[in-house]
């Protein structure tokens, strides 16, 4: 079975923002979803492809310089088209909700975008 034969899911989550969260994603959650026969679109690695760390290192990091602000503004603007492309290529959204008192802002935005586009079912973990 090739990658295109597997149902594709978009994995909305906040875990990719921390080292511990990425470890949980990569060692437990994603392998479990793959074992179910799913192809997982995890937005964090895709968005990181737009993050040029060498350029960031070359920018003066003292204070919020205009170059520093511009770098992060451009990166932030690249996230939405990247996530939109992954969502459009998916047949379901799986949202990892951590059980806290509120949902992560980014996940709420992804879920709202998914619903507005009428892309398919949403499963919450």
How many individual β-strands? 4
Strand count, sense and barrel status of the largest sheet are: 4 strands, parallel
Structural shape: globular
Radius of gyration: 16 Å
- Low-confidence runs of at least 5 consecutive residues: none
Mean pLDDT: 87
Question: Considering DSSP H and I runs of 4 or more, what fraction of the residues is helical?
Answer: 40-55%
Order of helices and strands: EHEHHHEHE
State the strand order across the main sheet. 2-1-3-4
Alpha-carbon distance between the termini?
26 Å
Broad structural category: alpha/beta
How much β-strand is present in the residues?
A: 5-15%
Q: What's the number of helices?
A: 5
Walkthrough of the structure:
This protein has 125 residues and is of the alpha/beta class. Helices cover 52% and strands 12% of the residues. It is built from 5 helices and 4 strands. It has a 4-stranded parallel beta sheet. The chain is globular and about 45 Å long.
Structural features:
125 residues; alpha/beta; 4-stranded parallel sheet; globular
């Amino acid at each position: 079975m090739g990658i295109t034969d597997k149902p594709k899911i978009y994995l909305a989550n906040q875990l990719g923002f921390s080292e511990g969260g990425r470890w949980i994603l990569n060692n437990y959650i994603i392998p479990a979803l793959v074992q179910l026969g799913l192809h997982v679109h995890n937005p964090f690695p895709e968005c990181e492809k737009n993050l040029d760390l060498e350029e960031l290192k070359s920018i003066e990091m003292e204070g919020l310089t205009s170059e520093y602000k511009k770098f992060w503004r451009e990166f932030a603007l690249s996230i939405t088209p990247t996530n939109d492309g992954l969502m459009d290529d998916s047949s379901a959204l799986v949202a990892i909700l951590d059980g806290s008192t509120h949902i992560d802002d980014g996940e709420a935005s992804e879920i709202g975008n998914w619903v507005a586009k009428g892309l398919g079912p949403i499963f919450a973990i």
